[in-house]
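Subgroup meeting minutes
Present: P.N., E.W., G.H.
Scribe: E.W.

1. P.N. recapped why we're keeping a running log of single-chain structure predictions: easier to compare across weeks, and new members can see raw inputs and outputs side by side.
2. G.H. added today's entry (231 aa).
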Amino acid sequence: MKDDTNRKTGLAVGMAIIGLLVGAAIAYPLGKNMNESSMSGTSQSMSSPKTKAADLRVTMNNLLREHVSTSLTVTRSIVDQAPEEKLQGAVDAQTANAVAIANAVGSVYGDEAKTAITAPFVDHIMQSNNYAKAVEAGDMAAQETSLVALRADLRKVADVFNSVIPSLSSDTLYDALNAHENLLNESIREYKAGNFAKAYELESQALTQISGGADALTGGIIESKPDMFKS
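Output recorded in log:
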């Protein structure tokens, strides 16, 4: 009952961010922008502010959904006790995705922001992996230690995003990040228990939630850089 409540709370927090940040003034419907882009000449579509907004939204959605997929690939490989070569390949893909997310932020806010987000973001996925190792080992103390470190890293991520995107409340973002991690952690616990249908249901919920987060980040970025995205 408690896990079900946590899932519902997580989804609610993730979707609430959209309402806070993605209003009519900064909403750029993806389908509309793609149609406009396809009907324009190449040079016009490359320079259109609306196209830039649509591209940013697609980029953030792709990267954050990939974050969910690569993270679960790693943690499931850990639970499955996959060969070291296979596990390392999954970890490499997971880390590359984290760096790509930091680079996407840096492409708008500069190298300082990219550097600031890279370390805590990479650290948080490593702690997530440590949590999976503790789940695999059935070590409750190690699970709690990983969760404490994970929450500290998520606070750093939230604070960095707030520093470059003031409209993103650090506390609200932190709550959403925690909700996101709760879904992934619950998914890996269910996977370890052999409840595969439930594990994949939770993955689906995590992908839905992270898409909401991607839209929220896109909206906040557009709002913070109006000259870059104004029509």
